[in-house]
Amino acid sequence: MRRSVKPLTTRATPLLRALPLLAAAACASGGASTAAPPVEATRTVVTSTTPTIPDIELNRDTRLAVHRTTSTPDRVWAALPAALADVGLSGGPMAGQARTYIALMPSVRRQLNKVALSRYLDCGTTASGERGADTHLIRLQVTNIVEPDPQGARVRFQVLARATSTEGSGGTTDCATTGVLESRIGEALEARLRNP
């Protein structure tokens, strides 16, 4: 029950390497878009060495999303932990980074706050048609950076997730965001800003 992971394109974006990308994107941003273009695209095939365990194939990209609001950065920063909790995320400020909040869920399965993980993540599809986000154990990290904006403030999001087989094979797959989680955080944040 051993799986081999064969990345066809190898570009990793661990959090510490991704933060400079977020900072650079912050300086170059303009307009009111909710998601920046993909900064990475990969195709990965997870091949099983056991015939009873299906292969997973996926294409993914990593997106940086932004939510703009007319509230001040201080108000947004104060409301952010409660907004994250409203969608089922918890975490804390990142040491040494101004207004950077890391929500980390080391082990999530099937749902996040009663919402199927496949609404938020694309972790591939098994040969039997099941979505990897709904069948695998997910490690989820959402980086949230609050910055000043000409109209008030903006929050930049980066969702990183990795799926691990629950069948004991140890195979892992990087997941892509669908953009829905970032939208839900933005909606929860606006609700918290309206009703503190």
Largest sheet properties? 7 strands, antiparallel
Point out poorly predicted stretches.
1-60
Distance between the ends: 51 Å
Q: Outline, from the CA principal axes?
A: elongated
CATH topology: Alpha-D-Glucose-1,6-Bisphosphate, Chain A, domain 4
Structural account:
Helices cover 26% and strands 40% of the residues. It has helices at 15-28, 73-86, 117-120, 132-135, 180-194; strands at 3-7, 41-48, 56-61, 64-69, 91-93, 100-109, 111-112, 115-116, 121-122, 125-126, 137-149, 152-164, 172-177. Helix 2 packs across helix 5 (180-194). The strands form three sheets. Strands 4, 5, 6, 9, 11, 12 and 13 form a seven-stranded antiparallel beta sheet that branches. The chain has five helices and 13 strands.
Give a quick set of tags describing it.
196 residues, alpha+beta, Alpha-D-Glucose-1,6-Bisphosphate, Chain A, domain 4, four-stranded antiparallel beta sheet, 5 helices, 13 strands, 26% helix, elongated, disordered N terminus, signal, ABC-type transport auxiliary lipoprotein component domain-containing protein
Summarize the structure.
Residues 1-35 form the signal peptide. 26% of the residues lie in helices and 40% in strands.
What is the fold's blueprint, element by element?
Elements: E1 3-7, H1 15-28, E2 41-48, E3 56-61, E4 64-69, H2 73-86, E5 91-93, E6 100-109, E7 111-112, E8 115-116, H3 117-120, E9 121-122, E10 125-126, H4 132-135, E11 137-149, E12 152-164, E13 172-177, H5 180-194
Antiparallel strand pairs: 1-2, 2-3, 3-10, 4-12, 5-6, 6-11, 7-8, 9-13, 11-12, 12-13
Helix pairs in contact: 2-5
